[in-house]
Amino acid sequence: MNKKIYAANWKLNKTPEEAREFVIKLKNDIFKIPDFFSNREVMIFPSAFALEAVSSLCAGTDIQFGPQNVYAEKSGAFTGENSAEVAKSLQAGVALVGHSERREIFKEQDDTLNKKVAVLQSLQVLPVFCIGETLAQREAGKTLDVCYSQLNNGLKEINKELRLVVAYEPVWAIGTGKVATKEQVAEVHAKLFEYLSSQGFKNVQLLYGGSVKPENAGELLKIPHVDGFLIGGASLQPDSFLKISTAQ
Ligand code: PEP
Predict the structure, then answer these.
(1) pTM for the whole structure
(2) Which of ligand 1's atoms lies nearest the C-alpha of 99?
(3) What CATH superfamily classification does 4-245 receive?
(4) DSSP line for 133-171
(5) Which of 12, 171, 230, 241 to mutate to test the pocket of ligand 1 (most atoms within 8 A of CB)?
(6) In this structure, which of 78, 152, 231, 238 has its CB flanked by the most CB atoms within 10 Å?
(7) In the chain, where are the structural domains located?
């Protein structure tokens, strides 16, 4: 059985110093839990300026980390962008792609996301590809159509044999405190699992994201095809992140 994944999206929070404090505390607390990594994977997504700080403290541990976004080219005249190759040189093993804030605020389109996933794969960095519907799309009964389209178009040219993580995050549940119901999560995850298998993806894990907290993590984790969480607000404190990571 796959290990459960607990992924922390810090968004635009934490200085390098604060990032270091978090990782030091997390490592100390994890150390006290026997066999913590035997059934879990932990991923941290700091902002770009804090990546090196996280890298220096995670070296030699099982804590994985990576950027919240990369550019679709590895290098060149792209002022202000962040390179997957540079992240890799800092030992990043994972990267977020297509978070709803990237799609909505920065207008990232499926074809660009597709290139980003391909660049990451070429560097052996595991993409965590985010999808999810807005409230208007859900109310119009388009949740699955939106998710399938984001998967189809955003993962068109990628290698389906390689490991991939897909995070289903209903946009209306991100940062709002409105967690999707068990039934909603169960329905979408079951359909996504079926769909990805039918499309030939060989090695995919499915995360849920959207207002996950220590109080709701245990219930959500029992839902079939929920292989872990992408966590925003509740990942900013080591205590709540660890409570989610150990919830049953
Ligand atoms: C996220 O940023 O991906 C997220 C799920 O945020 P939150 O947990 O705060 O809803």
Answers:
(1) 0.97
(2) 3
(3) Aldolase class I (3.20.20.70)
(4) --HHHHHTT-HHHHHHHHHHHHTTTS-TTS-EEEEE--G
(5) 230
(6) 231
(7) 4-245
